[in-house]
Design brief:
single chain, 105 residues, globular, binds FE2/S2 (inorganic) cluster
Amino acid sequence: MGLTQQLHDELGYDPDDGVPQVSDVLLAGMIPVGAVMRAREGAVPMAIARLGSGRLVVVEDECPHDGGRISDGFVDGELLVCARHNWELEVEGRRCRRATPCKLR
Ligand code: FES
């Protein structure tokens, strides 16, 4: 078994895949207003974003709609927008929820 496979088995992720830990991103302070990026907390996928007001948020990187990566989306003011089906999300703790109720037609 190679070292990378051994680390993957022990950590639950590949430490060489280029996705930084949340703490490293926060220490570097490298999130500009309007940006969202992928990170992880241990093995848990996370998204870090700086909303339009400058508020920094850290949420689990899983859209409540269908599991899309929130970090693949974008910031729109105080909302995060999931790129998969364009749900507008507001941050509630470490998770997101849909900002507007579903409209039935
Ligand atoms: S998975 Fe995010 S909007 Fe559908």
